[in-house]
Amino acid sequence: MTTHSASRFAVVLIVAMMTVISPASGQDASGVSAQIKKLGSGSGEDVDVIVKDLAKTPQLSAELLIQELHPVEDARVFPYISRPATEHLLDCIRALRFVTGGKDFCGKTNHHFGKSELEQNRKYWLYHKDNTCVPFFATWPSRGSDYIAPVDAQKEIIKQWKDWFAREGRTFFYKPFQNPTPDQWAW
């Protein structure tokens, strides 16, 4: 094979590979997006199963999960009261933690936590791990209640996720969890 023939063959091979890879990428994106839409939907599908599936394409999953993030007004979610939109958002954060191997962000808040039991529990659990900033949400494990950060902190955390992905998301060494404990990603 001459040098010219080899070059032509290499170009043809690259174009063929791009043709084969491009549709698959689109199919992967739509499949991953469909899986993400199931999070928190109460569809009966186990969050663990969906998240482990998302971990097979961690970069794409992270990008699409981050696109789902938005602030919510809820302060708490109970396991026996359906709040699909909020539960979807919390499961997206859980999935981000899982596919990135534990990456998480916290934000500062100007919220004044009131004296009610709800507000005092919310404050306690949100500041449970760090007394300088709050995570997007924190779980009271024995009650299965999720306490959600005030909106100002949520916005800051969402911005941190978006900024992180813009800076590092395409070059980040994704090492999704293998057998994590719930406190590593779900709480």
Q: How does this model look, in words?
A:
- This protein has 187 residues and is mostly helical.
- The chain is built from seven helices and five strands.
- The strands form two sheets. Strands 1-5-4 form a three-stranded antiparallel β-sheet, sandwiched between helices. Strands 2-3 form a two-stranded antiparallel ribbon.
- β4 and β5 (145-148) form a beta hairpin.
- α1 packs across α3.
Features:
three-stranded antiparallel β-sheet; two-stranded antiparallel ribbon; mainly alpha; 7% strand; 7 helices; 5 strands; 187 residues; single chain
Describe how the helices and strands are arranged.
Elements: H1 3-38, H2 47-54, H3 58-68, E1 76-77, H4 84-99, E2 106-107, H5 117-126, E3 134-135, E4 137-140, E5 145-148, H6 151-169, H7 182-185
Antiparallel strand pairs: 1-5, 2-3, 4-5
